Amino acid sequence: MDLFDVQKVVNITDICITTNSQGLYKVKPMSDIVKAGYNRHSFDTTSLWIAKHLDSKKDGAVLFGAETWFSNENSNRHLNFPCDSSEIAFQLRIYALVSHFQGHGKGYTGEKLSTLQTKLAALKRMGSWLIEKGYNSFHQLDKLSELKLRTLLTDYITKVVKATSPINKPRVFHDCFNSAKSLGLISDRVSKLLQEVLNEVFKENTTSLSHPIIPTCIARNIAKFAKTVIEECSKRIEAWEASNDIMIEYLLKQPLKHKKWKGADLLNYSARCSGAHEALNELAEYFVDLKVAVYIHILLFTGMRYNEVLSCRLGCADKSDPKNGKYLVEAETHKTVETAFLDTWIANEDTYIAIKLLERYVKGLEKRAKLLLNNYHNNIKESLIHNIKVGMNEKLLFGVTHSANSISYAKSGHFKDLNVKSPHFADKFDLTVTSDAIEELERLDQNYSILRGKNRGIPYVVGDSLRLSNHMFRHTFAYFVVANKLGELDDIADQFKHLTLAMTKIYADKGVLSHEELIDLVDGYEQLMTVAIANELTEQASKETLRGGAGERFNKAARELVIGVTNSNSPNAQVISQIHFKDLAELKRFFAKNLETIRGLPHGYCTAGDSCKINGASVPSGCVYCPSFIVAESHKIHWKALKIRAEKKLAIIESLPLEKQQDMELFVIAYKKDLKAAEYALNSTVNRITQSGGVTE
User: Fold this and answer.
1) Per-residue pLDDT tens over the stretch 81-117
2) How many whole angstroms separate alpha carbon 346 and alpha carbon 257?
3) How buried is 462 (Cβ within 10 angstroms: 0-12 exposed, 13-18 middle, 19+ buried)?
């Protein structure tokens, strides 16, 4: 077996790959490789990289000719290849090797194994089909007549692709079944014909839907569940640590070296003998859901991808500054396949507390691991020793397996189903779809439970259980960031309000750079929210319930289906043209297109954008008559509170002695101004905005 050597990997690609005039890589025909003095087994014993795995059987050098290439990316992802000696099996290995290390051509970057895994599965499926039909190489396809090729491809797509899992649906074909991305295994001619057949077979289902958000009411349930778990575990962490220490101390004082032990058996024996068994088992019912609760906290309140969350290590929140309200989470992110670097995300206090609690729990479990390594190294299985050494070295926050009386490490996993295991918390993890959830999803055009396949787009009905996925948290985070800006939040809003303040401060201090992808997500939801606001304003304008300078104009526009275009946002602006609409739907589309600068405030919408002269002033009465301001129904709760406050303050002042009232004359003027503005905003009067920006009775 060769030792790992980058140069040997480069030699393989030099022998098996050619470069065209555009700098794109192509896999050579086997005949050319044979002419150079090599065959399909010449590189089987070449080491590609050294895999570090918790399972000792998967640890070590990964060979080119192996049936499985275990990951070099600190994940459970791996590539599987056909175990036969066909040219196709060899071509698939060359495709994976070059795509991983070099990409599609000169100047490209390699792809992660997790990305290649899906693409290779599609190519491998086609390769197996070709072998069944008597073909030995992908290159043979380009030599077939058009009729024979079309028949072969149609047969494959209808009998294999359409009947299998979504990974082989059109999305994947777009990604890898072309000349450039398949490294020439699929020619341009074959790719074009393949696309034609795909469009014919799949017709309407040629695209997939994007991940929906988690509806606000369900996100609130999930957040409350996670917070409850953290609170209950926090109450019991000292008791758990004490019981854990009792179990460990027993083995330190009375070492048992006379027999071979499994790690679990040894620790369980100690727990029983020390009297800690009952307490550890009871407490385990609470801590079994600790990891998933922390995982939810990080996903929901940082915008991290799930694989970034799972890369968090012990100490990942140590750059936080709790005294100054600065909470940061550090994790690993991949920009290219070759490089992984630490990046930082902004979090909130609850997430920081959750991470620190899990770290405390993990360090308690690590005491068990150190005990076995230091005192029982020769008495437990070598596979467990290997598992513990690798796991302790990686120091992953989610890497320790939960157990009442044992210790082992596992790759952090994907929390695929986000299963709640504790009977204490099962009823709190409520994913039931309500009418409010459906209404919110409908407003965002996201009322569907299945993204791909023949059942894609089927809407939820009341009583369904939300199909929760990891990536939905990221979209939900972006949605709430936007919603917070627009003042449209529910109970969960407090977390995002705090988060937004933290973002503003930290970005201003240049402590953290924004993420381009997250910005793209936020921009997407800006558009969605603008459409949602346009729908809201059109509906309320048709009932003439909007208030504010701009609100009055919108009411008039909905009533007359005409809107005037002015030369400025000034109260005395001149109308330079008029736009006529055939119906409210057309008016709605106009609003959606022209409300790009709208900002949400607790007391209304501001359409002035950067030109707003008071920009988020804390005196709402200064906004209400502005020609750029709108008060919608959702804002009237704020005006009710302002009205009540003004009335109470005025009543208190009126009850004071006359000389005291005179001292508070300016306050009386301000409160009366607030009261008048609130009455107008609440439709308590029939006031109308004048051309000068004032109000008439």
Assistant:
1) 987 888 999 999 999 999 988 888 887 888 888 778 8
2) 49
3) exposed
Of 549, 560, 666, nearest to 604 by C-alpha is 549
Chain segment 6-24, per-residue pLDDT in tens: 777 888 989 999 998 888 9
For the chain, the domains span: 6-205, 216-428, 515-697
Q: What is the largest CA-CA distance in the chain?
A: 109
At 103, list the tokens: 């990409």
Question: CA–CA distance from 414 to each of 40, 244, 295, 501 (Å)?
Answer: 36, 28, 10, 31
Could you tell me which of 299, 317, 300, 319 has the C-alpha nearest to residue 309? 299
pLDDT at 416: 63
CA distance 549 to 242: 65
Rg value, the chain, Cα? 32
Bridge partners of 653?
none
Instruction: Report whether 222 contacts 300 (CB < 8 A).
Output: yes
What is the DSSP code (8-state) at residue 323?
A: G
Site of tokens 């049936």 = 67
Q: Is the dihedral of CA 170, 176, 182, 184 positive or negative?
A: positive
Give the H or E element holding residue 552: helix 549-560
Give the tokens for residue 547. 């208030």
Q: What is the DSSP string of 151-166?
A: HHHHHHIIIIITTS-G
Distance CA 529, CA 499 (A): 19
Q: How far apart (Å, rounded) are the C-alpha atoms in residues 102 and 337?
A: 9
Structural contact between residues 90 and 40, judged by C-beta atoms closer than 8 angstroms:
yes
Q: What tokens does 178 get?
A: 């072309």
First and final CA of the chain: distance in angstroms?
Answer: 93
Sign of the CA dihedral 104, 108, 110, 114? negative
Question: 382-394 and 349-375 are packed helices; what angle lies between their axes, rounded to 10 degrees?
Answer: 150
Burial-class residue 208 by CB neighbours within 10 Å (0-12, 13-18, 19+).
middle
- 645: which residues sit within 8 A by CB, 6+ positions away? 674
Report yes or no: 79 and 69 within 8 Å, Cβ to Cβ.
yes
Token representation of residue 126? 């086609």
Enter the tokens of residue 161: 């692709």
Report yes or no: 352 and 518 within 8 Å, Cβ to Cβ: no
